[in-house]
Amino acid sequence: MIGFDELFTGPVKAFPAAELGAGWFKAVRGPFPGLRMVATGGMNARNAAEFLSAGAAVVAVGSALEDADQLPALAGLVERSRMEKS
Questions:
Q1: In whole angstroms, what is the distance from residue 74 CA to residue 12 CA?
Q2: pTM, two decimal places
Q3: Which CATH number fits domain 4-85: 3.40.720.10, 3.20.20.70, 3.40.50.1220, 3.40.395.10?
């Protein structure tokens, strides 16, 4: 029998992530540990780390990129992610 997470060879978009909540990502991660999820919709510098910690492989930001106050925090998240992977 093929598992659900084996059907998807690439990332799965989870939208609107902010409405689903970080808990949803954590819950889905349990039965489907190999599923790569992209959190999109309502993501910003204040909640991105929470979604990554909950199991999102990627966090996609949109309107947050237009907010100059968020750019340094988003850059910091990217830098921390790079350091953790090396």
A1: 22
A2: 0.84
A3: 3.20.20.70
User: In sequence order, what are the beta bridge partners of 19?
Assistant: none
In whole angstroms, what is the distance from residue 21 CA to residue 50 CA?
Answer: 9
The single-letter code of the amino acid at 52 is L
Residues of the chain with pLDDT under 50: none
All residues at 6 or more sequence positions from 16 whose CB lies less than 8 Å from its CB, including other chains? 40, 41, 42
| Residue 73: half-sphere exposure toward Cβ, Cα within 13 Å | 15
Give the gyration radius of the chain's Cα atoms.
14
Domain-wise residue ranges, the chain: 4-85
Q: Provide the CA 72 distance to its chain's centre, in angstroms.
A: 18
